[in-house]
C-alpha cells in the first residue's frame, strides 16, 4: 500500500494539542455567549462569487489563495477562506432579524505558502455583530478579542487600530492615493502596479520592502476622514483609552479584505515571527448591500486558532495537566477480570472516565499502560480485594497507595479528582 502523508499546509492535532485546541474553543464559546453571541454554522464551501463580492478582486485571497473547484454540475464553488461572508449570507438568506450577534468556530482554507503560523487549512474563531452601528460596538468587539486572549493567559500582544473611512470620504482619498501611487509606479512591484488600478488601498497590504518604502510617504486614510468618520473613530479611541489593553494607532492598517469601512484592528504578537497577526477585524457596513440585502451596519473579528496555540504561555489554563482525571483498573487474574469489568461499567455509569486492558498481561505492564494513558489513578482488583470487598487505590501522581472499602470508592475517587492535579 502506498504511504500517504497529509497535504502540504495541513496539520494533525494530536493529544495534548487536540485537548488544548478544544479548551480554546470552549473558552471562546463561553466568552462569546457571555457577550450575547449565538453560534452559526455555515457550509464549508460556498458559491465562488460570494467571496469575490466580499473580499474584493484585488485582494490576495481572491487573486491567489482560494481553493476553487467546479462541481459535477458545472458550478464554481470555493472552500471558505474566512467566516464572515458565509455568516452574512446565512442571515440574509434566512431572514434573521437584526440586530443579531453570531459566533463561529470553523476551518478555513487559503492556498498560501506554508510557514510557522500560516497553513492552508486553519481554524477561525469569529464573532459578527450584525445590525449595530455604534462605535461602542467596535470598541466592545476589540475588547472582546483582547479579553479572550487575556483569559487564555496571553498578555504579550498589542492591538493596532485604524480608520479607513466610508463611502463619503473614500472616493476623494482614493483619487489622491492613486495619483501618489501612479507617480511612484516605477518603484513598486508588478503586483502593486496592477492592484493600485483596481483598489489602491490594497497596496498597503504589500510586504515588499520597496513598496513599503514608497508607502511611508503616501497619503493616509485616517487623515482624510469625513466629520462623521472622524467622530466615530474618536469615540472608538476614547473607549480604548479607558481600557486596560495595550493598543496603538497604525495608520497603515487597511487589512487585506475589501469589505471594511471605518474601524479596522488587528491583534499582533511578537511571539509569532513573520505571521504576527493573532486576529483581526473591523466594521463592514456595506456587505449586506453587496449581497443584495437591505443596508445594515456590521462589525466583527476573527482569531486564528493555530496562532493562538503558538502564543499561549505554559502557565495558560488551557494546558492539560500531565495526568488527567482517568481511572485505570488493573486486575491480577482471570477470576478478578470479571470484577474489574463490572467496576469499569459502574464507574462509567457515574461519568467517571475509566479504562482497563482486556489482555491478560502482567501487573507491571498494566501500570505501564496506565502511565501511557496519562491516568491519575489506578484501582487494583486482586484476590484479597475481591474477598474483602475493597479496592487498592494508587495515586499515580504521588505514588501513595491505600485500601478503600467498596462503599467509599466513588467518593474517594471524586475527592481525589477534585483536588489540584499537581
Ligand atoms: P483575517 O485577518 O484574514 O480576517 O483572518 C483572521 C485571522 O485568521 C488572522 O489574524 C490569523 O490569525 C488567521 N489566519 C488567516 N490566514 C491564516 C492562515 N493561512 N493560517 C493560519 N491562520 C490564518 C478575516 O478573515 C475576517 N473575516 C475577520 C473579520 C470578521 N472581520 C470582520 N469580521
Helix content: 25-40%
Query: Which structural class should the secondary elements be placed in?
Result: alpha+beta
How far apart are the termini? 45 Å
Number of strands: 16
List unreliable stretches of 5+ residues. Answer: none
Calculate Rg over CA atoms: 27 Å
Return the average pLDDT rounded to an integer.
95
Shape verdict: elongated
- Ions, cofactors and other bound molecules: histidyl-adenosine monophosphate
Main-sheet strand order equals 1-5-6-11-10-9-7-8
Beta-strand residue percentage: 15-25%
Number of helices: 15
* Biggest sheet architecture: 8 strands, mixed
Give a structural overview:
By secondary structure, the chain is of the alpha+beta class. Helices cover 37% and strands 22% of the residues. It is built from 15 helices and 16 strands. The strands form three sheets. Strands 1-5-6-11-10-9-7-8 form an eight-stranded mixed sheet, with helices on both faces. A five-stranded mixed sheet has the order 13-12-14-15-16, sandwiched between helices. Strands 2-4-3 form a three-stranded antiparallel sheet. Helix 5 runs parallel beside helix 9. The longest helix is centred in the first third of the chain and has 18 residues. It is elongated, with a radius of gyration of 27 Å. The two termini are 45 Å apart. Histidyl-adenosine monophosphate (HAM) binds next to strand 6, strand 10, strand 11 and helix 11. The site of histidyl-adenosine monophosphate (HAM) has 26 residues, from strand 6, strand 10, strand 11 and helix 11.
Main attributes?
single chain; 422 residues; alpha+beta; eight-stranded mixed sheet; five-stranded mixed sheet; 15 helices; 16 strands; 22% strand; elongated; binds histidyl-adenosine monophosphate
Amino acid at each position: 500500500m502506498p504511504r500517504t502523508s497529509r497535504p502540504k499546509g495541513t496539520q494533525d492535532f494530536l493529544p495534548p494539542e487536540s485537548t488544548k485546541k478544544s479548551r480554546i474553543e470552549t473558552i471562546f464559546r463561553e466568552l462569546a455567549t457571555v457577550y450575547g453571541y449565538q453560534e452559526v454554522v455555515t457550509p464549508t464551501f460556498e458559491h465562488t462569487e460570494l467571496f469575490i463580492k466580499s473580499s474584493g478582486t484585488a485582494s490576495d485571497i481572491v487573486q491567489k489563495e482560494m481553493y476553487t473547484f467546479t462541481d459535477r454540475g458545472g458550478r464554481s464553488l470555493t472552500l471558505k477562506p474566512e467566516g464572515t461572508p458565509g455568516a452574512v449570507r446565512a442571515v440574509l438568506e434566512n431572514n434573521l432579524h437584526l440586530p443579531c450577534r453570531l459566533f463561529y468556530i470553523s476551518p478555513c482554507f487559503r492556498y498560501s505558502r506554508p510557514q510557522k503560523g500560516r497553513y492552508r487549512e486553519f481554524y477561525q474563531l469569529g464573532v459578527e455583530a450584525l445590525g449595530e452601528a455604534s462605535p461602542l460596538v467596535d470598541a466592545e468587539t476589540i475588547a472582546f478579542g483582547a479579553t479572550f486572549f487575556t483569559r487564555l493567559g496571553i498578555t504579550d500582544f498589542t492591538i493596532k487600530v485604524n480608520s479607513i473611512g466610508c463611502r463619503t470620504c473614500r472616493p476623494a482619498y482614493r483619487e489622491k492615493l492613486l495619483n501618489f501611487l501612479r507617480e511612484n509606479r516605477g518603484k513598486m512591484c508588478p503586483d502593486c502596479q496592477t492592484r493600485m488600478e483596481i483598489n489602491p488601498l490594497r497596496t498597503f497590504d504589500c510586504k515588499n520592502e520597496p513598496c513599503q518604502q514608497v508607502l511611508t510617504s503616501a497619503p493616509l486614510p485616517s487623515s482624510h476622514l469625513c466629520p462623521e468618520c472622524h467622530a466615530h473613530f474618536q469615540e472608538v479611541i476614547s473607549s480604548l483609552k479607558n481600557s486596560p489593553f495595550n493598543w496603538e494607532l497604525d495608520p497603515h492598517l487597511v487589512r487585506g479584505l475589501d469589505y471594511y469601512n471605518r474601524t479596522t484592528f488587528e491583534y499582533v504578537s511578537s511571539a509569532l515571527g513573520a505571521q504576527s497577526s493573532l486576529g483581526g477585524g473591523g466594521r463592514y457596513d456595506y456587505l449586506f448591500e453587496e449581497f443584495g440585502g437591505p443596508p445594515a451596519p456590521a462589525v466583527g473579528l476573527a482569531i486564528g486558532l493555530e496562532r493562538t496555540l503558538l502564543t499561549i504561555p505554559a502557565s495558560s489554563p488551557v494546558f492539560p495537566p500531565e495526568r488527567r482525571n482517568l481511572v485505570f483498573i488493573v486486575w491480577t487474574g482471570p477470576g478478578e477480570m470479571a470484577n474489574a469489568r463490572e467496576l469499569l461499567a459502574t464507574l462509567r455509569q457515574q461519568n467517571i472516565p475509566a479504562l482497563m486492558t482486556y489482555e491478560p498481561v502482567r501487573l507491571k505492564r498494566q501500570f505501564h499502560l496506565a502511565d501511557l494513558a496519562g491516568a491519575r489513578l489506578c484501582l487494583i482488583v486482586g484476590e484479597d480485594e475481591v474477598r474483602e470487598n475493597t479496592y487498592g487505590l494508587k495515586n499515580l501522581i504521588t505514588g501513595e497507595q491505600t485500601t478503600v472499602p467498596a462503599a467509599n470508592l466513588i467518593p474517594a475517587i471524586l475527592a481525589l479528582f477534585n483536588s489540584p492535579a499537581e
